[in-house]
Design a protein that fits this description.
Layout (H helix, E strand, L loop, with lengths): L12 H31 L4 H24 L13 H27 L3 E5 L7 H24 L1 H7 L3 H14 L9 H21 L3 H16 L14 E5 L3 H4 L9 H17 L3
Antiparallel strand pairs: 1-2
Helix pairs in contact: 1-2, 1-5, 2-4, 3-8, 3-10, 4-5, 4-8, 6-7, 7-8, 7-10
């Protein structure tokens, strides 16, 4: 079920003013949340991963909820989270695509022996419990970032000009990750590409479930396969991925997202989403 956002009132200047009011309030709320919620979670002594994930989720949830309560019907569907069997299929399809792309990025180096799994002494003592906890945090983080970057304001703008919205928001998405640990220029470029892909996935389906699935599938598969995720080392499985090639293909300490492999994976995902995204 796609979200049908209503037409803005008036024409010309009145229409532009109505759009500016909606987008401006959303951006203001998102920025306030992006600043305030990390402080609150850090004060509660939450870890870096939990603070990042829950802050994004809280900021995105508040910005969307207040905006649609004021300007629309106040429903989940007003910002692309209306639930239906189709929404569930889109989420699962995205989850599978994201995880499969991550498996390809890790699988080919293992097959061609330019990477190998080695025991990681710093891994969690209870890997299944740790995986469940990290997976939950990553799901909240993926949903939060999608609500922030591809929620109500993005959708209002993209309905008027998809290209002029998806591309710049993708750039902002990449720049927002520059503060991650061990960030690199290649990592930033790939994150921009991911941001554009996720915006395109919304445009294809007019809902957030496919982009949330893609985002979460990729994010949860990489640490499960022993790789770093956006600079985070999670040590979930008792094994870590070690490379015998340079940073161009391995991504260095940032992880595979800083590699050319991810660039190729995102290109493949673009093609798949373009062919099947409306399913």
């Amino acid at each position: 079920m796609s979200a049908e956002l209503p037409d803005l009132p008036g024409n010309g200047a009145a229409n532009k003013l109505a759009l500016l009011q909606r987008v401006g309030l959303f951006v203001l709320l998102a920025l306030l949340g992006y600043v305030a919620f990390p402080v609150l979670f850090q004060a509660a002594q939450a870890g870096l991963l939990v603070t990042s994930a829950l802050s994004s989720f809280a900021a995105g949830g508040v910005a969307n909820a207040i905006s649609v309560r004021i300007f629309e019907r106040g429903r989940w569907s007003d910002f692309g989270l209306g639930w239906s069997p189709v929404a569930g299929r889109r989420f699962l399809w995205g989850l599978g695509l994201g995880a499969a792309a991550a498996a390809l990025v890790i699988g080919f180096p293992l097959i061609f022996r330019v990477a190998k799994m080695e025991s990681a002494p710093e891994s969690a003592r209870h890997p299944w419990a740790a995986f469940a906890f990290v997976a939950a945090a990553l799901l909240f983080g993926a949903a939060g970032e999608e609500m922030l970057f591809h929620g109500y304001a993005f959708q209002l703008l993209a309905r008027r000009s998809a290209f002029a919205t998806i591309l710049p928001v993708g750039v902002v998405f990449g720049l927002a990750h520059l503060g991650n640990q061990n960030a690199t220029a290649m990592g930033a470029m790939n994150t921009v590409a991911w941001g554009i892909l996720l915006g395109f996935a919304w445009w294809r389906t007019q809902s957030l479930w496919l982009p949330i699935g893609l985002h979460f599938g990729w994010n949860v598969a990489l640490p499960l396969l022993g790789a770093n995720l956006s600079g985070f080392t999670m040590g979930l499985t008792g094994y870590a991925l070690h490379w015998s090639v340079g940073n161009l293909w391995s991504g260095g300490d940032y992880g595979p997202e800083g590699s050319l492999s991810t660039t190729l994976a995102v290109m493949l995902l673009f093609w798949v989403v373009a062919k099947t995204g409306r399913a």
